[in-house]
Amino acid sequence: MDNASSTKRRPLSLAARAALATGFALAAFLGLTGLAQNKANYASELSAMHDRLHNYAIAYITGTDTTRAGKVTTPDSQPNPDFSRPGSGLYAIIVGNDGFRWESSSALGRDFDFVRMLSPGETAFEPVETRSGKLYVFSYGVSLDTTDKRSVPLTFAVAQTEDQFERQVATYRRTQFLWLAMLGMMLMLLQLFLLRWSLLPLRRVSSDLAHIERGTRDHLDGPYPVELTVLTRRLNAFIDSEREQRSRYRDTLADLAHSLKTPLAVVRSQLETDGDARSLRGDILDQVRKMDEIVAYQLSRAATSGRRTIAAEEPIAGHAEDLVQSLEKVYAAKNVLCEFEIDDGAAFPGEQGDLLELMGNLVENAFKWASHRVLLTARSSGKGKGRSGLELIVEDDGPGIADDKIEKILQRGVRGDERVQGHGIGLSIVQDIVKAYQGELHVDRSEELGGARFSVRLPPG
To answer: What predicted TM-score, i.e. pTM, was given to this entire model?
Structure first.
């Protein structure tokens, strides 16, 4: 019984915790569900309006007749009282040959010149923009026979304003949003609770690491879930390796000091004797050579246990040409000319992926706003211990950016013009990369081209 009580129960695995948490993560799909439902409701309302207007048109066709002389007699009754109320938003129009035209009382003062004659049996349902707003119009072409077998072609059109349709759609959206928001809030609270519960083992690892830093523990002892066992084993191996490395450095320094004692003692001894100057010089040079070999050997031992940092540099010219060729295809309709002023040897002091993100977003932004010209300038800006600095400037001949809008457009999700397609995150990415490289981003107006100028300065490394 003592053994059973001393044996700690292993916590639930992270896979089991994640399975429980992801069951409630369906809240992430509520947005897509709402979008799908909204589109389905929109299509349903549009179909219902089509059927309603079609039935009105049939009612008017049924109530219309022709005399022996070919004169059209319009219906006396209306299928809906709104056809008799001016400005109701529901209108009926009948057009025929020889300038015949009839309009319902609701169409008083409205312009329906867009109604066109259709062939008998032809129908049309389409939105039409008018001076009074958008209308949804259903048109039906028919041919009525007179008593003497003559045909009178007519087109019946029934129109409804967009306002009525949008009110129905908006009501559904409000109700849908309210319910989805309430459900989303409940799921989010549950997900936060479950996430906190699921991360308890990680917090335990963090607490144990803090004990190791304070020196109260030597290793991560656990117990931990199976998914963390490999991690904690590697951390323990890293802790042992770090201790071994410190011990190795101490041993190396001790070995170096011990190894240098003998050559130094020999040199001192030779200097204290009154021997021949040429012989003395040769002996000292021989001991200096030995000390140099000892230092090189001991340093190589220490270096093999460390980690080397490689400072990469990416040339600008080749990536710039590839980038511009791609953008010229995307913006071929604008016929933008991109000019280069790239110094020989100009290079980006970092990873290739960061260069492509930085230069790609700036040049694409210039292509988007330019009228005809874009100028890309790149030059080195000094040499540091490892890498050169860089000055990258992108200019265009577009409308430019007002001083009071510069700070706003650098924010994530904000576009300079909402009418221009995009997501508004490109310049924010540029700013993040520049900050990561401890550089500066300056936005002003181009003196040469007259549009916007983005200047990036990265310090040498």
So the answer is: 0.41
